[in-house]
From TrEMBL:
Domain of life: Bacteria
Protein name: Transposase
Pfam families: Mu-transpos_C_2 (PF22483), rve (PF00665)
SUPFAM superfamilies: Ribonuclease H-like (SSF53098)
Domain Integrase catalytic: 105-279
Record family assignment: Belongs to the transposase IS21/IS408/IS1162 family.
Organism classification: Bacteria, Pseudomonadati, Myxococcota, Myxococcia, Myxococcales
Species whose genome carries this gene: Anaeromyxobacter oryzae
Length: 365
């Protein structure tokens, strides 16, 4: 082989001539002895050992193949880390598939409404403004409601949900939302318990609706409204410019009506047809009387000019409260109760149009 290589023969020609091991085109060394590399056979575990490895991975080893290999070595079983990894590859693939698999949950008419917030930078009056919007979807008919805000706080959540009830003309049995701090105080995944915000619970009691929260980091639990949020971002407001916030609200109102007339990809029906045929009568009637408003309690210190700042708008208070800490209640109900003259707290009642920074009314002793 060395002589033929010295004559300029190629590896394949030498292999054909001598019938050697260079049939795959491996180069022949110009000098020294020709050695043959011996590779050890890949080790595999029998069925009993694989079952034991899977049990260790799911149990004490907590998925760590290195720990499993060490535990097997302590028991006298010779298995490398790669051997352990090969033994559990199918098991891990099945686990990943089970984790991402989702069974579509179809609800009865009037049973559930899903809610979620989204945000997007929108051009309003020539300026880029971050617009927050609530999307609410009736799970059965897929009717959609959208309302835009300039903030995403508890007041906006509650106002958006109540507006959705009024838009649909009725109240479903339950509302499924995410784990926003405006709605959920704590979510214990192990105990499967949810602690809702007291103000949200009071709101749900007023409307006689059951609050629900999806699993943390599992937004597809409320996939219907997640799709609605994406549709608003990519369809309703994408690439559009608006003269004012009111123009944006009017556009969304027209767009959602048109969205209810399209044929839905899952139900293969128009949401408005499905709603009028089966869901409208399943919703509970709206309250006959206006419900109390649950505002945002705020803590402010009165400045020397007898003004307090709320949402960049300054409101006057009695001069005797200068430099005192006061409590304010930001509410959409202009008929908030007066506080007693002896109290150092006030009630601030702004109209729902505070999104456009209207002054509203301040009620104080």
């Amino acid at each position: 082989m060395r002589e033929l290589a010295a004559r300029g023969w190629g590896a394949k020609r030498i292999a054909a001539e001598l019938g050697g091991g260079a049939e795959h085109g491996a180069p022949v060394p110009a000098g020294g002895a020709v050695g043959v590399q011996q590779r050890s056979l890949r080790r595999s575990l029998d069925e009993a050992a694989r079952t034991e490895v899977v049990a260790l991975v799911d149990g004490a080893a907590e998925g760590n193949a290195v720990v499993v290999a060490e535990m097997l070595a302590a028991r006298g079983v010779d298995a490398s880390v790669s051997t352990v990894q090969r033994a559990v590859v199918d098991h891990r693939r099945q686990q990943r598939a089970a984790d991402v698999a989702t069974v579509r949950f179809e609800t009865a008419p009037g049973r559930q409404m899903q809610i979620d917030f989204g945000e997007r930078r929108v051009s309003i009056a020539g300026e880029q403004v971050t617009v927050h919007f609530l999307a609410a979807v009736l799970s059965y008919s897929r009717r959609l409601f959208v309302k835009a805000f300039l903030h995403e706080r508890q007041g906006e959540w509650l106002d958006g949900i109540a507006s959705a009830f009024r838009h649909f003309g009725g109240v479903p049995a339950e509302v499924l939302g995410d784990n926003s701090r405006c709605l959920v105080v704590a979510h214990n995944r192990e105990a499967q318990t949810v602690t809702f915000h007291p103000a949200y619970l009071a709101f749900c009691r007023d409307w006689d609706v059951q609050p629900r929260a999806c699993q943390p980091y599992r937004a597809r639990t409320k996939a219907k409204t997640e799709s609605g949020v994406k549709c608003v971002k990519r369809n309703a407001i994408a690439g559009r410019q608006f003269e004012s916030f009111g123009h944006l609200e009017a556009h969304l109102a027209e767009w959602q009506l048109a969205a209810d007339l399209r044929v839905h990809g899952t139900t293969h029906e128009r949401p408005t047809d499905r709603f009028e045929r089966e869901e409208w009568q399943a919703l509970r009637a709206l309250p006959a009387r206006p419900l109390p408003t649950h505002g945002r309690p705020l803590q402010r210190r009165v400045a020397n000019d007898a003004l307090i700042d709320i949402d960049t708008v300054r409101y006057s208070v009695p001069h005797r409260l200068v430099r005192d800490h006061v409590e304010a209640l930001a509410s959409s109900d202009p008929r908030s109760d007066l506080t007693s003259p002896e109290s150092s707290s006030i009630r601030l009642a702004t109209s729902a149009a505070y999104l456009s920074r209207s002054q509203g009314a301040i009620i104080a002793a």
